[in-house]
Every structure is written in C-alpha cells, then in structure tokens.
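User: Hey, my collaborator sent me this sequence without any context and asked if I could get a structure. I don't really work with proteins. Can you help?
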Amino acid sequence: MRILALTLDLDDTLWPVRPALERADRELDAWLQAHHPEVARAWPIPAMRELRAQVAVERPDLAHDFTTQRHITMRRAFAACGIDEAPLEALWDVYFNARNSVELFPDVPAALPRLAALRPLASLTNGNADLELTGVHAHFVHHVCARDTGVAKPDPRIFRAAAERLGVAPDTILHVGDDPALDIAGARDAGMRTAWINRAGEAWPDALGAPPDLDLHDLTELADWLDRHGGSVGKA
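Assistant: No problem. I've predicted the 3D structure and written it out in structure-token form, which is a compact way to encode the shape of the chain:
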C-alpha cells in the first residue's frame, strides 16, 4: 500500500514536552506570586498539580480536553481562596505561551521540511500545543487535536477524523508517533500504517499486539525511508 499522507504526533515526537510543561508551571506560579500572592501561597506548584490531577479524575468526560481541565483547576484554586472570579484569560496566556516554548529534537528542524515536501502532513495530538507558537505551522496542512475532535488517542475516531481532513483512506496514511499505546496501537486499530519514533531504542511491548510497520530512531530515518522506498509499506 502506498502512503499518500502522514499524521504526526507533536509532544515527545517533535520536542520533549516535560521541560515545557515544567516551565509553564513555574511561570504560572511566578505570575500568581506577583499578582495573587494569597493563591500562590495556598497553591504552590505541587499542590496545584495535585488539584489538576483530581480534576482529571473527577471529570473523565474531559479526558480529551486539557484546556478545560486547567480552567477548572484555576477556578477551584481561586475559589478556595475566596476569589469568585479567576482571571482565566491572563492565567491562560501565561501558561499557554510557556507551554509552547519548546525546543525541537535535533533531527526535527531539517527532517520536518523534508517530510512536508514528500507528503501532506497533519498534526494529530491529544495535547494543546499550538503549531504557530511552536514554530512548525508552515509544514502542516491540517491540525487535528483531541479537544476539537471530542475524543483522544487511542480512540480510532480521532485518527479517522484526520483521514477525513486529509481526504484519503486511513490505510494510505502513515501515523508517526512516540507512544506505543496512544500512537501506534491506536493508529493501527484505526486502519493506518504506523511509524514508531523510538528514540530510546526500546523493545516493542508485545502486550500491545502487532509491532509498528516502521521502528525508527528519529524523523531523519523516516525521511530517508520515504526517499528510498517511495512510501510503500506492506499491510501491518
């Protein structure tokens, strides 16, 4: 089957996400200390993280929507301090800008434009990364995220939504991602071909079933593979 398009995960595929999330927590805490010190004292970073985790457990209906989870967290933190109206817009601006201040993996700046020149690319993410703020928007024709779709990976519906946006059949799409369960098993179950970006060289977890079509170290290997093989893979 010939590959006609690619879907790419973002967090931990194009950049390591943990440093950005930790930076966002620190900058949000600094903003609270400057503007609402009573909230900062009551909700230091570890406590705020625990509250956010509690919201996630209480609201499984929002498992696809990290943005709303964070808004609820902020409202609860401020309400616990006797403040009825949390300044959500200001809080979100601080968090969102820091969360999207990412550092691309070393292979990505050169490999991503190569991939975009070879096949149409759609980003496919559970997170709330912003293509423009992260500086990679020029390489993508579509952006598909869990919040807009209403479901998150590994639900097959988000992968099928990406296929609809791209205008091609799922089995002609190669999904590229780092997470064996969310990306590889999810895309496989939706009928897509799969490429595992396995930067740590880990063994495939057999409990997840069939291995990916491609097990690659980075995006450079993916671009090289597309150049060599013309994007044809066998059925997984």
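In plain terms: DSSP finds eleven helices and six strands in the chain. You can pass these tokens on to your collaborator as they are.
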